[in-house]
Amino acid sequence: MRTSNGVFAVVATEISKKVLINNPSGFHMRPKAAFVEAASKFDSDVKLVWSGQAFNGKSMFELMLVAAPQGDEIELFVQGSDAPEAFEHLEKILAEVEPSQE
Amino acid sequence: MDVYRGIPVYPGVVIGPALPLDTDGFLIPKRSVDPGLVENEIQRLKDALSKAAISVRKNQAEVSSKVGSQFAAILGAHAQMIEDPFLSNEIVTKISSNYFTAEYAVSQVLRQHIKEMEALPKGAMVSRTADLFDIEKQILGQLIDQKQQELGNLTSPVVILAHDLSPNETAKLNKQFVHAFATEAGGRTSHTSILAGAMEIPAVVGLGKFLQEITGGDIVIVDGDAGLLIVNPDEEILENYRKRQSQTISHDSSLEQLKSLPAVTKDGVQVRLMGNIEFPHEAVHCLEKGAEGIGLYRTEFLFMGKETIPSEEEQYQAYKKVLEDMGRDRPVVIRTLDLGGDKLATGTQSNERNPFLGLRSIRLCLRNIGLFKTQIRAILRASVHGNVHLLFPMISTVLELRQAKMILSEIKEDLQEENIPFQRDIPIGTMIEVPSAAILADCMAKEVSFFSIGTNDLVQYTLAADRSNEDVASLYNPGDPAVIKLIDLVAKAAGNANLAVSVCGEMSGDPIYTMLLLGLGIRQFSVAPHSIPEIKKIIRMITLPEAENVAREAMRLETARDVNNYLRGQIRKLIPDPMV
Predict the structure, then answer these.
(1) B191 catalytic, yes or no?
(2) Which of B78, B113, B163, B191 does the annotation list as catalytic?
(3) Contact status of A42 with chain B (Cβ, < 8 Å)
(4) N or C, fewer C-beta in 10 Å, chain A?
(5) Does the model's ipTM exceed the 0.85 cut?
(6) In which band, very low, low, confident or very high, does the pLDDT at B91 lie, cut at 50, 70 and 90?
(7) For the segment B388-434, what is each residue's pLDDT rounded down to a tens digit?
(8) A29–B74 C-beta distance less than 8 A
(9) What is the DSSP track for B61-129?
(10) Are B214 and B20 in contact (CB under 8 A)?
(11) Catalytic residue status for B385
């Protein structure tokens, strides 16, 4: 991250990546619930960007507004002291194929 | 100051702080709290959120053990949302910056999200607004629960304001502190009104939307005489009402002394004053007010607000209780089911285009013989416990009356065969509340042993006017000459056939009509228990020739307005400062 005068500020690592939704039911309630539960265990900030909008990854409430069907991409941003570990974990949940039982 | 006009259902004036109640399942109105109470609202919210989450998780565990964890996962997601600190912060902000009630803030935030969700691209799947509605319901349920607990723990007098009150909620009201109530919904014969009567607290219903203007603690006046709700009254109005309040109190205590005196005119004509009841527990109340019997037991209230139709045994117990409370000799007129029109049992929904002219009351019973027979069996079985009279409502033809009587005799035969004791010569009466029955009163008289004139319906059907429809309500007037002529006709037919006739609508409890009715030959009045002393007072102040003179004069007049003005003038002569 660069400040306005071009000096690099000391910030925690931010990792981001676009993740493809593989679940046939899309990113629905159950993976969302699992995602929020996992995200809340880390210190890092977790953000999801979908359809041009950013959503707090620790808020089930905000994630309700993510309506990503199978084949959509969601960009995952993780920033903070435990970012690498958190990222690995959360990416897995996001990309997980889990047959729909709804 | 705001003034709302509604339907008065129990007289009296109360001035007090407002306690607005929100109704489960009803859109929460926009309301604010005093800025000093913001912290309190936030605390209420936090309690509600944590309780709601606990309850949803408990539910989740249950569902999980019953049908599997994958089905319960959705409830887990609900709990996550309820516990979501982002949600909580958003609601707290609404409360602290707009002074909204916790209820309204919750509903606003969630409705906003629901709107956003509805704007999402449809098709694929994913988010269901139903989840958010569910969550809203959970949180509001907790908040409303809190309020209801408060209702049980009141320590100072309040006036309850609500969209509507369920029988359940009304039953929780503590009469010591709930001094009046006012509701947006409801009509004169709705549950709420009837219960106000039973609780004897001033009440106004059918006020239309007003809750959004109320802040808890606002000073309000409930004027149960005129049917007004006045919010934040100015000093002058407040002073006027304070004066009226003190007058009412002295008026009440003078009526109290009448309790043990007989209802007899100055020249010795005996009048029978009876009470109208809806619930068994009110029988005692009638006795307290000096009623000589129950002139009308509206049994349909046993059926309303229930999931299932009450069994024969349940009905029998209710009737038996009333009879035992009233003692062996005092008559108890049990009216068979008068459901339909504006009184519907839970679960039934009328899709008739014109329910008041449709399948209601005795018509409904004659079509649902099973229902009717069960009730009549219960009444007959109970008849051994006291002095029961059986009354059929809304009879419009002689044939209908004969049909009803035939069913009665069938059941008598059944009971006889089964060796179940009952009173064999139980007196049968018919309501006269449809103009056709009034016109044919002489024919009806041959079929029964008493008449009961139900003025509420008689006025509505004679003038073809629904009084809950404000556009035509002014046509609805018990003082209308057409109504008076019909009552005269019925009283004469009853007199010729030597039949007892009573008047049991609201007209009989309105003091301005007492002299008129007495003069027309009515010797039996059945009124809401609280009206008994007032009517008795008037009866004891007049002679029969005076009353007959009033009736004669009134019969000469051609409009309801003239009749009412004349009758009001007469009663002012009697009581210079009447509370009417």
Answers:
(1) yes
(2) B191
(3) no
(4) N
(5) no
(6) very high
(7) 999 999 999 999 999 999 999 999 999 999 999 999 999 999 999 99
(8) yes
(9) HHHHHHH-HHHHHHHHHHHHHHH-HHHHHHHHHHHHHH-B-HHHHHHHHHHHHHHHHHTS--SS----H
(10) yes
(11) no
